[in-house]
Amino acid sequence: MPELMREPVGQLSIDRRRRGDRNATLKHKLVLGVISAMLGALLQGCAAGKTPSQGETSLANAAKDVTIPLAAGKRNNPLPETDEVVSQGQEVFLGSCAQCHGADARGDANLGRNMTPPAMDLSSAHVQHWNDAELFWIIQNGVRLTGMPAWKSSISDNDTWKLARFIHKLPRPDTAPATTPVPSQTQAVVSAQDKYTLKIPNGLAFSEFRGYESWPVIAISHNGGAVAAILGNPVMINAYKARIPGNGKPFPDGAKMAKVHWNAKVDAGQPGAPTVPGTQHDVDLMVKDSKRFADSGGWGYGVFEYEPASGKFRLGNLGDKPPQGNDAKCGFACHTAVKAKDYVFTAYGPR
After folding, report:
1. What residues contact 216, with CB distance under 8 A and at least 6 apart?
2. Structural domain for 154, as ranges
3. Where does the record place the Cytochrome c domain (predicted)?
4. What burial class does residue 99 get, using C-beta atoms within 10 Å of its C-beta: 0-12 exposed, 13-18 middle, 19+ buried?
5. Of 279, 276, 335, nearest to 302 (Cα)?
């Protein structure tokens, strides 16, 4: 064969690799097309009130696999696999993902269960076989023909990598869950968010205060730019009526308080232009459990910030004013000033 017609061995190898990549990409697209068509046909007959068949669920999961571009899974997570990063990932999860996947990430939330197909159990083998980069792509871009939305405009790249670290640290289904079991999801949804799925890592869960909105008022307050209503559960109210803590006795275990803050505003339309509640700011929570919170005076504390623009709650953090740590003791330092009153500032208002 003439020399000019021969192809250099190195170039031939490169061309073969290129053809292989093109063939793999084409195969990837063809498989995606077939699965999408089959899934679309199946889901036409799957009403929201029906439980998806195993075939429908399997196809939906397969669609997630082939949707991920080949190159997307080759990236490296730039964040270290530390407890701090995992904890921050959990905070992102509880604020954005728990309403569908449940507080324990196993898909056991009312909204997620009623999706077609249902929201995935993130501790499952199918999810856990994706690497961090593949999880990153799914979170950022979503998956067509499922309820998984694209979070690119809402969750930053950095927070998405944190989420990937958190998901890969979830306990497997055959192990005991590390978090409190998911409560019943019958409470009314607040702006498409079930606030009772929120939980402070190693601390209070919002669900422990289910129904606080109708608790009796202990007192009201106006401090700086905020007004507040301090509410108490029956155990707390009965303790106050028994003259605790004025009689020197501590509040009993099970006593709970919720302090609802609103940004203060002046209502010029009312006589005397009173200061009244404006937009909601946050909810502060306290529960007495002398064994669980022995190292913080027997009380557990939690702060859940409300964001009017989104209509959702989130965990308090160190960027808030005042800053809030992600643990059950976030209010302990402040409340030590009233240790003699069993760490409770608020007196029961006469009525």
Report:
1. 231, 232, 237
2. 76-174
3. 84-171
4. buried
5. 335
Contact, 228 vs 276, CB < 8 A? Answer: no
Same domain, 127 and 213: no
User: Can you tell me the distance from the alpha carbon of 302 to that of 204, in angstroms, rounded to the nearest whole number?
Assistant: 6
Q: What angle do CA 65, 67, 73 make, to 5 degrees?
A: 70
Contact indicator for 203, 326 with CB cutoff of 8 Å: yes
Whether 330 shows a pLDDT value over 80: the answer reads no
d(CA 328, CA 330): 6
Tens-place pLDDT, residues 224-241: 789 999 999 999 999 999
Among 174, 194, 215, which residue terminates a domain? 174
Q: What confidence tens digit (pLDDT) does each residue in 183-192 have?
A: 333 333 333 4
Kindly provide the b/e burial profile for residues 37-64, where b requires at least 16 CB atoms within 10 angstroms of the residue's own CB. eebeebbeeeeeeeebeeebbebbbbbb
Between 87 and 213, residue with greater pLDDT: 213
Q: What is the pLDDT of residues 69-79, one digit of tens each?
A: 777 777 899 99
Q: How many domains does the chain have?
A: 2
Alpha carbon 243 to its chain's center = 39
pLDDT in tens, 28-38: 554 455 445 54
Same domain, 335 and 245: yes
CA torsion angle for 196, 187, 259, 270 (degrees, to 10)?
A: 140
Token pair listed for 306: 């409300």
CATH of the domain at 105: 1.10.760.10
Residue 295 and residue 48: Cα distance in Å, rounded?
A: 48
What are the structure tokens assigned to 224, written together?
């700086």
Which of 286, 282, 278, 153 lies closest to 218 in space, CA to CA? 286
Whole-angstrom distance, CA of residue 176 vs CA of residue 181 = 10
Q: Which amino acid is at 239?
A: A
> What Cα–Cα distance (Å) separates residue 225 from each residue in 169, 261, 275, 283, 284?
41, 10, 10, 15, 16
Average pLDDT over residues 99-121: 81
For residue 105, the one-letter residue type is: A
